[in-house]
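MOLECULE: protein
FOLLOWS: sequence and fold
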Amino acid sequence: LLQRQLRGYTNEDPSEVPQQALCSDVLEKLYNLSTSPLDKCIASLLITGYSFAMRSCEYCSVHGTRRTKVVRLKGIRFFIGKRLVPHNSPILHRATSVTLTFEYQKNDSRNETVTAHKTYHAFMCPVIQLVVIVRRLIAMPHVTEDTPINAYMELGSTTIQHIKSETILKKLRLAVAIMGKDELGFGPEEVRLHSLRSGAAMSMYLQGIPVYVIMLLGRWSSDAFLRYIRRNVQEFSMGVSQKMIASSLYFTVPFERRLQ
């Protein structure tokens, strides 16, 4: 009886409105709109977050106490091939891959490492953006290996600030608003920072990346990542109907009677 009553309450609750998945074009728009040093820092953090399917609390300051921590300077390693390149190297920009260490995570995992490789894009590249982030950080006074990647110092200031989630969300929604609902299918009010993680999962899925790779790169310990795949994305079912009629006839082997 109690279960039926609780189910009745659940049925009367309004349906949850999912955060829309963001495509990489939104980040390109945001990057191209960036004019101030703060805008460019935000663009670097978002492109990095998207490339690693990061939780918002891993690249910016959020409200409340979280088990997950923002990635710190010491958690970033660059490589040229198999050779480790130090942060202060003059050839850091030649790095071909970058590895992040996620110290504490929501699912209790610790010190998980994920590697991303250089792309052919001028700025939609995790290696390029993390080089920008690291060089910005080490140029600031009083920075240590424990400094988080969202640390920021305004020109002429000597005080380190930390870029907050609401500041980043405002810029992200601006880019969505400029692109418009006709282009994206949704408006800025339907976007939150989790849309970035959802968009990363959606993009990998649409490109045919195996499910287990998506899980490992996004650090999902179960099939919970399926919640981030949006069925209302038009390209989600691309080619499915055609494939369904490719095998127009198939034979069903009859069941054998159980042997006595």
Q: What stands out?
A: The beta strands are 76-80, 83-85, 97-104, 110-117, 151-152, 161-162. The chain has nine helices and six strands. The longest strand covers residues 97-104.
